[in-house]
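A quick word before the example. In earlier lectures we treated sequence and structure as two separate objects. From today on, think of them as two lines of the same record. Here is DUF2971 domain-containing protein written that way.
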Amino acid sequence: MYIENDQILLPEDPDTIVWKYLDLSKFLDLVLSRKLFMSRSDKFEDQYEGTFSEPSFEEVKKIAEKNPTFLDYYKKHRKNVVISSWHINEYESFAMWQIFTQNSEGLAIQSTVGRIKEALKLETHYKQYIGEVNYIDYKKEHTPFENNFFPFLFKRKSFQYEREIRIISDLSRQKITINEGLKINVDINLLIEKIYIHPRSENWYKNLVIELIKRLDLDITIEKSDLESDILI
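And the structure line, produced from the sequence above:
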């Protein structure tokens, strides 16, 4: 279920376009299981994930002097928070294709903020929150920590190109073991508005994706990448 939270900000327009770039294996896992994988936050490559900027960490250390369990809580908390990342952009991103897909066998899912909210209503066991990531200078600026989700909604300016929104779940109260992550129920036909096939993919791969969507009886539009051109000089 998707829960509103006044402290977590999102683009006001529900029609804001968002993207998720996947290799074929991850896309197959999504459409065959009809579940969205959310990665454990401490498994991300960014070592600062779920931590604090330098000025905020100084404040945290002062609190921890009087309350030693305070810092331990945040360290453990990272293992109980799972995240699904999406990229805000009106258009396809060449950079995102390069970073998140291997070879030329990948897909891009196009959705909107509003569609994601609706698609998440199918999940009734875990609460999800959606927020836009803020990019700040971790040497000078503060990351707030009065809300448990804030450490996961701030990143260093080096990552601004990601233009990220995140679906976040805090599973601290759930008595489950989270290894790499967790799969949650989603309405696939609502979540995925369109699929864009990798601009450098061959015809056999395009036909494979088309046949897959047909066999799974999914109501999803398949688009040719805008980065692929029929014009040869």
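Notice the following. The chain has a mean pLDDT of 88. We will return to this example when we discuss secondary structure assignment.
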